[in-house]
Request: fold
Amino acid sequence: IEQRSQLLRSLRDRTTKLLWRPIAAAMAWSRENQDLLDDPDQPQLYIYCLHLGLEGFTIDQVPFREYDGSSETALIPVRERNLLPHCPEIGLASCRDSLKELGIESDEEVWKTLYSSAAPHRLFEIDAFKNSLSEYWVRQFSDPSTTLVQWLEQVKRQIEQKIHNQNPGLPHAVICTGEFSMDLPGNTSLPQLILEKLGIETGKIILESNSGWLRPESLAISAHTYSRNLAKDRVSYLDELPDLQLLITKRGVAEWRSLREEELVPGGKPATLIKVKDFSLTLGERHLNFFVHHEDYETVRKAELSFTQAYDQDIQLELHVSLEPAGGNAVIEA
Reply:
């Protein structure tokens, strides 16, 4: 987590863009299913992106929505805000236990094996390691107290609530990436067992492999497409904005005003929210306080704008509020 935080801090120059893995997977799926996206009678279209990696397991629902571009209307993926919980480091734990079963006892040797230049890719080609790992996952599913089963129960409850509220129908596909998109004894796979546990029904489970269209480099191709689209001011996906409200006092009466006009905005770009024009700096004042409420938090954020001098009359102000999805707090300028 600390390494990830350091990476994000190092990219604060905002010249480097990050692409969310499920969106990259959805873009890869789009390239292979353009006929579905071109169907005007298509009902609610969405897929699941299941990632089973060393760093953790995640599953995300990615819907597709219409976007009116400059030249055409297209169905493109949406990055939703209310994400399902993830299960961190479970992949590393499984590898550690499997390696110890194979005789690599010390933690130092375990980490050295996992992070050598050839690992983890070469590890997953060793039959003894694969068999030990398969047995590990079978044991995990058979014990309701394991981290894996507890995580799946939590995710299942949220998925059932989401389906109850939205009634989206069945997913068109489940895209599976990561080192653990693997077969298990009994003619099944780890992704299949996870989806059965979650109650997700779909006839199309697409595993990352060297032989199918979802190859290890597919997500990198999506990132390249996203970068190229940004340079040409094209939209690759949509971001869902939170509702922000600003406390405004008019004629002595306080009221909350929503700053969001549209729920979905072009992804990867700062979104300019509405402009508030009926603000003024009172005679003799040098400071202006703002109170902003974010729908996901119980607390209210206070911001203060200071001016270099006090004025001898009321000064009319226009506020500009911008927000970069998943990029921190909103920016308020007067």
The first helix runs from residue 2 to 10. The two ends are 36 Å apart (CA to CA). The CA atoms of residues 255 and 289 lie 15 Å apart. The mean pLDDT is 81.
